[in-house]
Fold this sequence. Notes:
CATH superfamily of the largest domain: Alkaline Phosphatase, subunit A
Order of helices and strands: EHHEHHEEHEEHHEHEHEHEHHEEHEH
CATH class of the largest domain: Alpha Beta
Strand order of the largest sheet: 9-8-10-1-11-12-2-13
Structural class: alpha/beta
Number of helices: 14
Shape: globular
Strand content: 15-25%
Amino acid sequence: MRYxxxxxxxxxxxxxxxHGGRTSLQAASTPNLDRxxxxxxxxxxQTVPEGTEPSSSAACTSILGYDPVADYVGRGAIEAASMGIxxxxxxxxxxxxxxxxxxxxxASYAAGHIPTADSxxxxxxxxxxxxxxxxxxxxGIAYRHILVVKGxxxxxxxxxxxxxxxxxxxxxxxxxxxxxAELLHDYMERARPVIAQSSxxxxxxxxxxxxxxxxxxxxxxxPDALEPFEECRGVRAAMTSGVDLLNGLGxxxxxxxxxxxxxxxxxxxxxxxxxxxxxxxxxxYDLVVVHVESPDEAGHSGDVEGKxxxxxxxxxEVVGRIAGxxxxxxxxxxxxxxxxxxxxxxxxxxxPFVLHGPGILPNGGExxxxxxAGGTGAFVDPGHRVMDLLLG
Length: 392
């Protein structure tokens, strides 16, 4: 038996008045997911445990079969692992976004979705001015970067607000607070003039998408040893994703990362190449994870048509290619968490999953969406047990 996990990041959501009370999943044309649903098992999974931040780190940890509470790793440390950053025992890694503030409000949590080339150039400038014995800044993908802070473990106990949680809102009450916060406030203040004077900022300003600030959040430290996926599940796994979070989870869980040209974190990703790369990898691996970020990015932007288009592209180019490609293939397809258009951020509600393949019996589902999944009565809580269903 071989297995494929398809993660439609953030694809679930709430009913939309603009689309007759349908969710993005219901409004999208998904003939391939609907076919898997009719032939397989449809249900809901609680991927975000109660009391846990509804982030992709918790939700995707669940999908991969790990307990996001017992096996908790701070997201900054996960993304650092993806980038090959070795953390010392006295170091804390934080995710650091380039953002755009306007009139004290979070105009863009992603600095107008700054391209990686521009972002790297700007982060290199910031590092040349601000790196010292305490701070080291590492460029990541697009607007996402890593700030490593040495000698201040108290930062793990500070309070943070992800910038995508406060889109279009005033940020004054959402800066880091608590232990070590002043250290970060000082870093943010010192970064501002460097960004303002950068040629990258000038060029982006001409296009109306200038970065203005940095925003640190999601701290983490080097994790204790985690049991590798192959040892705990008995299958050899690989993953394709355009974001550091998933790639970092792959590093920590011993899941190989596939290098597929054209795979990005946005709507410009090469969906077909990602699917074809996964199929090729299934010749060598028992299980392949295909993570697609684009629905989540559209959700954070409040772009309902973009989210629907992303869901349809995944159904057409990814699910359509993988489903039916082999008689011995089981497929699990699901979002990690909802990213409702109205919120422009994540919530912790259960998400629909569909299981399809040898040994999986239909349970009455007709369409792949939130309401239909709830109607089957199949509910997996805790969510990490959905991997047991896939491999069982």
